[in-house]
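Q: Convert this sequence to structure tokens.
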Amino acid sequence: MKYRSTKYIALGLLTLSLMQSCTYLDKKPDNLLTSDMLWETRANAEGYLNQIYSYVKMPVDDYTVLGASDENSCNIPSVNVRKMVAGNWNPQSAYWQEYWNDAYSAIRQSFVFEENIDKVPESAMGSDLKIQYKAEARFLRGWFYWKLLRQYGPAVLLDKPLGLNEDYNNYPRNSFQECVDYINKMMDMAAADLPVVWSSSANYGRPSKGSCLAVKSQVALWAASPLWNGNPRFADFKNKDGKALAPLQNDPSKWKIAADAAKAVIDLNTYKLFTNLEEGDTNFDPYLSFRDLFLTSFNSEIIFSTHRADTWQWGHEKRSAPEPGGINMMNATQNVVDAHLMRNGKTIDDPTSGYKEDGFVQQDDPANYGKSRDGVNRGYITGNSSMYVDREPRFYVNILYNGKPILPAPTTDDRNYFSSDVNKDGRGRAEFYYSGKAGAGQNSNSADKTGYIGQKNVSPASNIRQDRAVYRPFIHLRLAEIYLNYAEAMNEVNPGHPDILTYLNLVRQRGGLPKLESVYPQVAGNKDEQRKWILRERQIELAFEGDRYFTLIRRLMMGNPTVQTIYRLNVSANDNGQGFAFQDFYKRQTLQTRYWNDKMYLFPILQDDIDKNNALVQNPGW
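A:
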């Protein structure tokens, strides 16, 4: 286990706008990369493949999780995501330009690898392994094109590395459908030579057949959604020769394609929703089931993940912890807090749900979520605001709120470190009120706090006070998303199909909720109502995983006032020593009304790249 200084993590977290110097139009010679010496040994060849894997992003501090959607806000005004939501960016801003640059670097290297791997002597690497590695390279190529398509729209599809003497003006953008077809082709080719499941843990982190099918599910859902399915905003989105880059007509059959793509993953019968029973517990605990699926390596729900030790884990936990041990960057909004349901499956605005906001609870949560594992009651505790009583188990996984015990603080001394002297009782309750240790009155960069921190993917075995984080994989694809993809697509095809509620309810029930139709019978079979509930389930189940941003994008919902208006608690009101009992802290306030322009549905291509390639057209509005 390594230790890092606060200075190190601050540097890493605040370089969100750094731009790399190379793009697919500006490359160095390949002579060293493709030399015979490189391909003489298995170790060198595998090292080259691993280099391609290194470009797979773990988006733990990018725009999708730091505040570009309504689930989060970053309290540091200088970060690029804050500039984005204020409308302060243009094609020269280069926000997250490394995603474009690195994707094309990886795509280029995938070609180099595929063209040269057969040069490795048979005595060093057998033909079966070469076939497998080529399949991995094709998966990665498709993966990076998928990431480009999602962020920038239609990409420039290459079939080889570009040489130094290439005329870049011969490389216009391909159409959206051509990109979709190419990604699917790469996934199909890769799936043909990859196993359904890896038999050895040494191969975890490599794609499987399921990984390929899961990417196809994501791509199909993207293609079926309103952003790219006959969107009139893209009617004039064309290359300079007049070639249309976006589908001009809505095609309802694309929802059937998306449903079938998700069902293909399900029908592998390889994956299942993780529960704490896999860890040897005898009693189902929905809190532990949801929390530990992100903390347990090689579990049954993971479809594709990155296994990289002691890199992202520490930074994620540092920014997801309150002062004084953490830096409190992952400020969850009141919007996402309010989206979470009551334990009875009802919304908080349902007058029959039992939700209330005034007063404080006088007893600990009798459900004792997580106590069997940690010895700590991870539900609500005595003195918490009534706002947080009887909320669904996933709420307590996702959200750190005022008065909730700190998670990455394993000992009594560690927990007391986060408490003011008057509160040192061994529980380490987060002090977000004004005069508290994590309050706006005690810390810099605090004016824009929300009163919450997103806490998903934080481990109780870590110790943020000691700057120590435990290993776990970063999950890119998991089964719950596929279930929700299937339910969403099938609802658009046939809202009366029983599979919709079957798979939606599987996710809800793992989260400790009753079946939707038992709570709101009128929803069953109603396309509009089911769609609302499916999207809400995505908002809860996939919170802080980047999905919310992309769901709002593909569904053309970013301009909705309810999405633009971000709420927080009354964090700047002086509690005058009342601490946790300060009722005025729990009043909603508007944190910000975010700027939106429809051109922001796509990132702009860097103007420097536009200038280098006369055939490259800019995204609409930029």
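Residues 124 and 180 are 37 Å apart (CA to CA).
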